Amino acid sequence: MIRSFLESLVRVDSRLPHEAAIARVFADRIRALGLEPEWEEVAPGRPNVACAVRLGPRPGLVTFSGHLDTVHAAEGWSSDPFDPVVRDGRLYGLGALDMKAGLVAAFLAFERLLADRSRHDQLGTVGFAATVDEEAYGTGAKALMASQFGATDLLLLTEPFHGTGPDDPIPLVMPGKVLYRITVRGRSTHALSHPERGINAVEDASRIVAALERLPLGSHPSVGRMNYSTLKIEGGYREYSVVVPEHCQVIVTRLLAPGETRPGAVAELEALVSSLGLASTVTVEAVPPSYEPFELHRDHPGTKAFEAAYRARLGRDPVFGGLLCITDGNIYQGEGGIPTIIFGPRGQGLHEKDEYVELDSIPPVIDVLVDTAIRFWQS
Q: Which residues contact 237 (CB under 8 A, 6 or more apart)?
């Protein structure tokens, strides 16, 4: 059942921004349970699909969630990325790991809690939510936050982090991200006869880029020092002309440690630019997509419930840590304040050719998700 469900999802092309077909699969699955799904188009043809059910009298909403979209296929696949192939217990296919296997686990955990009526008097409200656009701007997660699911008390996000070791931790800490747009405005003049009369925006932009190493980057014991990267520099002529460039734009991404903020990061870059004494006029903006950092503490009831469930179901303690990456958890917890546990199946090849998931890692994930929810309601 798990394998056939996952194979059916891999065969659906859900490369962003085309998630509607796979959303319909989950909407039909929800209807097969005798429920009516919530269907919200957060952009034309880009629907979130979700459902929440009150099972019993306990307070609290626990939501299982994942994203519907995949990236586009990398070059060099050894098989058709939309035709799932199983070899040596691994299922290969685009999105098999990131994160259709996680969606399978999330939905089957939701389904199992609904089906086990003998436990309902010990439970609260359970939700399932599949969202769009995680691989780009997170608009699906942001829309979910504005719905009834914004009141979620514990969110279990089934991204492929399995807690097996330092290189594969359950991330209780994730950095945020600010995307800087630096606009440099100079003054145009003839570039041969008298360039000194102008203000060269490209040259001033290059001075800013060279100075970025002086940014006071934050750090955290779980993830180390934050980083930055210059993604794009654009300025000067479009058609060749001997003119001092009067405009240049630079795009820089920077990770933020817990405790750092986007406004603070903008102010730090503005101070750095000001210290350079440039003749150009420079503006610094934070533009989408930007994300807030987050940290979930080990003594939170959700963390304790997950740790106990993981130990009971897998026979070992989970390895907790931090990761230098971004997920919808940055929206749910970093922006929305929803305690978020990120845990899902094992595999390899995120955003690479020949991506695969280990099939035998999916059933234990379902077990842990269900057990975590039950323990959380009973805490």
A: 243, 245
User: Does residue 193 surpass a pLDDT of 90?
Assistant: no
- Beta strands of the chain (E only): which ranges? 38-43, 46-54, 61-67, 85-87, 90-92, 125-131, 154-157, 170-174, 176-185, 219-220, 224-225, 228-235, 247-256, 281-291, 294-295, 320-322, 340-342, 347-348, 356-358
- Compute the C-alpha angle 99/102/107, nearest 5°: 125
- Tokens in use for 331? 């929206």
Parent domain of 266: 176-291
* CB atoms closer than 10 angstroms to residue 106: 26
**18-38: pLDDT as tens digits:** 999 999 999 999 999 999 999
- Provide the number of structural domains found in the chain: 2
* Residue 61 amino acid letter: L
The answer to whether residues 50 and 137 belong to one domain is yes
Q: Is the pTM of this model over 0.90?
A: yes
Place of tokens 């004494």: 277
Nearest to 34 by CA among 62, 15, 53, 59: 53
Q: Does residue 106 contact residue 67 with C-beta atoms inside 8 Å?
A: no
